[in-house]
Structures are given as structure tokens and as C-alpha cells.
Specification:
Radius of gyration: 23 Å
Distance between the termini: 45 Å
Shape: globular
Number of domains: 3
Strand content: under 5%
Helix content: over 70%
Number of helices: 18
Largest sheet: none
Length: about 400
């Protein structure tokens, strides 16, 4: 009897703890995070006042914006040939429905959502320390300096450096933002120490796009307060110069950035490619974008795209026409979420996706929500070099945190 009473008195708390489970398992293999999401759904279902929660869902326009994008994927499935892959992809994108609905109608109030954000931020910080310790151990064991950098730092293939970089950069921004609000004489020292540590970790992650976003955020943070003065400009230039010096000091990071700073742009205009074509990360992306967009327009898929299930089959055909299959580039995504959506869902999907991003920026600025704005910047900028919504860890990152910010308070 006491167990039943405990369940009745505490079932409204289960959803919050299940949410923390989802946040903490983002760093683990996908199957564990999927299990945590299933637990979150069950916890939400057993919350009291189900009818009242359904009303909140129906009346919340933010929920319908997410659902609208998911429905475009459903429509795209109707004209796809590869139904099997399309269904698999749609299942992967159920987060567009799950998180907005749960975070709109659950008993997780604004205070709990802020606690959840803080939990994720500090948990990410702890994970970064653990990964650093392991990477250092590997370095001292093997003597291989490269064991400290990029995917060797993040350890396992399901935690790609770019995605961990997104989590880490967002988390550090949350912590710094909250430290700034504390009246404490030592807060400046804590913030500076945290920024210094962040630079170290960002160098180890060695993601060009994440480091670029970090520079934008740091310089933007310096220049955004009050009037732009000579002192602020000087400090911004110092930050930029310091990052350049640090990047140039390590052969691994220097090599990664040199490939981008000195691209062979002539390669983009070739019609056919050899099996050993000398692509850099940038030029390979530019080739994917160019031939993808050209063929979509040429083949008459401009408005509706090739369909939810046919992206991989279509791009493989395009890659083969340009001999990219010789370089083993089949099954590569577009490495740009905007191009990815355009090929898959056409102008209809692209416009809707851009509207979602614009809406996040608009609401964050309107409500002076710095953390939401930083999240929007990190996500949208990463979309220029990665197809973020093609992988589980990107989909969950976008849908979960967008839902948390949009549902934290009444937003008009």
C-alpha cells in the first residue's frame, strides 16, 4: 500500500528525472539515449490530469510548428520509392513530436527546466574532463600526440567531435551566463578559468566550425555590451589573434585549418573525379552542394524534392555520374543541413526549415534569452557544414533544447 501511495505522490516528478536521463545519455551510444527517451514517454503518460495536458498541447502553437515539419517528412514519404528507408528516417525524427508535446504538457515548470539546463551544462563539463583524462592516458601510453585530438579525444564513433563540440560550447555558454549573474568577487576568475579551459578543449576537439562559432560568440559577447569602444575592439582582436596562435602551435589543428584556408577551388568545377582526388574537407563539401543543387533543379525536383526516403539513393546516383563512387563517397550526406533539406524536401521543406530557425532567433531576441540565442547560433551555424538533422544526436539536440526554451514560459 505504501508503494502505491508513493507512486501517486511522486508520479509528477518522474518526468523530470527521466528528462535528466535523456540529457545524460546523449553522450552514450544511441541505443541508450533511445531507451531513455522511451522512459521519458512512459513517465509522461502516467502523469496526472491527462485531459488538461491534452488541452495545453492543442493550444500551444510551438508544438504545431514542430509537428508541421514532421508532417512534411510524412508527405515526402508518399512520393518516395524507397519506403523502407523513409519509414526508418521518419522513426528517427519522432523527436519532433515527442519533446514538444512532453515539455509543453508535463509538470516540468520553468524552474525545473532551468535546473535541467544547468544539469546538462555541468554534466557536459564533467564528461569533457573525463575524456581529457582518458586522452592524456592514451598519449602517455602510446606517445602518439594525435591521440589527444579530434575523434581520438571523443573516444567512440557515436560521439562525433562536431556534435560533442556543439554540446560543449552550448554548455560552457550556459555556465558562463549563469556565473555572470552571481554577485561574487571570485566570479571573474571562475569565468576566465572556464574560458581558458574551454579553449583547450576546443583545440582538442579540433572542429573548424565549432572553433569558428566559439570565436563569434566570444567576440560577440565582448562587443554586445554597451557602446563599441577601442578597448573592446582591441580585446576582440586579441582573442582572435590568441586563437590563431594556439591553432598554429599544434600540427594537428594547423593542418586541419590550412586545408580550409588554402582550398583548390578549381576542383569544384570538374565534371568527373578520380578515385584519389585531392579533396579537402571544404572542397568536398562544396562539390556535394554544387552537384546536388544542380541535379535537383535539372531533374525537376525544385519544389518538392526527391522525397523523404530517396535522398541516399538519389545522391548516390548523382555521385556515380561524377565518378565520386571511385573515391568511396557513396552514402555520404550533403554535409549541410540546408542543402540536405532542399534535396530531400525541395523549396517547400527548405523554406519551412529556415522559418523554424528564424523563429528561434526571433523569440530568443524578443525575450532577451541569451541562452536560447546562443543555442540558435550554435545550431544554425553548424548546419552550414553538417547535416545535423540526419543523425540521432543532432536531432535530439535541436528538438529537445528548442522545446525546452520555447516551453519554459508563455511566449507570444
Amino acid at each position: 500500500m505504501s508503494i502505491v501511495l508513493f507512486f501517486k505522490n511522486n508520479r509528477s516528478k518522474f518526468t523530470f528525472y527521466a528528462l535528466l536521463g535523456v540529457l545524460s545519455t546523449l553522450f552514450l551510444p544511441i541505443k541508450y539515449n533511445s531507451w531513455a527517451i522511451n522512459v521519458l514517454v512512459v513517465a509522461w503518460l502516467i502523469e496526472p490530469q491527462f485531459k488538461e495536458r491534452v488541452k495545453r498541447i492543442i493550444n500551444n502553437k510551438h508544438v504545431w510548428v514542430f509537428i508541421g515539419f514532421f508532417l512534411i517528412y510524412i508527405v515526402g514519404l508518399l512520393y518516395s520509392d524507397n519506403i523502407k528507408y523513409g519509414v526508418k528516417f521518419i522513426t528517427r525524427n519522432l523527436s519532433f513530436i515527442i519533446f514538444p508535446i512532453i515539455l509543453t504538457s508535463s509538470n516540468i515548470d520553468k524552474e525545473k527546466k532551468n535546473k535541467a539546463l544547468a544539469f546538462f551544462a555541468y554534466f557536459t563539463l564533467i564528461i569533457s574532463v573525463v575524456l581529457l583524462v582518458v586522452a592524456l592516458f592514451n598519449y602517455f601510453t602510446t606517445g602518439d600526440f594525435s591521440s589527444l585530438f579530434y575523434d581520438n579525444y571523443t573516444q567512440h564513433k557515436e560521439l562525433h567531435p562536431v556534435y560533442f563540440g556543439m554540446y560543449f560550447l552550448f554548455s560552457i555558454s550556459v555556465i558562463v551566463n549563469r556565473l555572470r549573474k552571481i554577485r561574487n568577487k571570485k566570479k571573474s576568475l571562475k569565468i576566465l578559468s572556464l574560458i581558458f579551459y574551454s579553449i583547450v578543449i576546443l583545440i582538442l576537439i579540433s572542429s573548424k566550425i565549432i572553433i569558428a562559432i566559439a570565436l563569434v560568440l566570444m567576440i560577440g559577447g565582448i562587443l554586445s555590451k554597451g557602446k563599441i569602444t577601442v578597448k573592446k575592439v582591441g580585446l576582440s582582436l586579441l582573442v582572435l589573434l590568441s586563437m590563431v596562435v594556439v591553432i598554429a602551435s599544434f600540427s594537428v589543428t594547423r593542418k586541419r585549418f590550412m586545408d580550409t584556408l588554402n582550398p583548390n577551388l578549381e576542383i569544384i568545377y570538374k565534371g568527373k573525379y578520380a578515385y584519389n582526388e585531392n579533396f579537402s574537407g571544404l572542397t568536398l563539401r562544396l562539390v556535394f552542394w554544387k552537384i546536388g543543387i544542380e541535379h535537383i533543379i535539372k531533374d525537376g525536383y525544385l519544389i518538392e524534392g526527391v522525397g523523404t526516403g530517396d535522398f541516399k539513393d538519389y545522391t548516390n546516383t548523382v555521385y556515380t555520374k561524377h565518378n565520386l563512387h571511385y573515391g568511396k563517397y557513396l552514402d555520404y550526406n550533403a554535409h549541410n543541413q540546408f542543402v540536405q533539406v532542399f534535396i530531400c524536401l525541395g523549396l517547400i521543406g527548405l523554406v519551412y526549415f529556415m522559418y523554424m530557425i528564424y523563429r528561434n532567433f526571433l523569440i530568443a531576441i524578443r525575450n532577451k534569452d541569451i541562452e536560447f540565442l546562443v543555442f540558435a547560433i550554435i545550431f544554425s551555424c553548424t548546419c552550414f557544414s553538417e547535416s545535423v538533422l540526419q543523425v540521432h544526436k543532432g536531432i535530439v539536440f535541436f528538438t529537445l533544447f528548442s522545446s525546452m526554451f520555447l516551453c519554459a514560459k508563455k511566449i507570444t
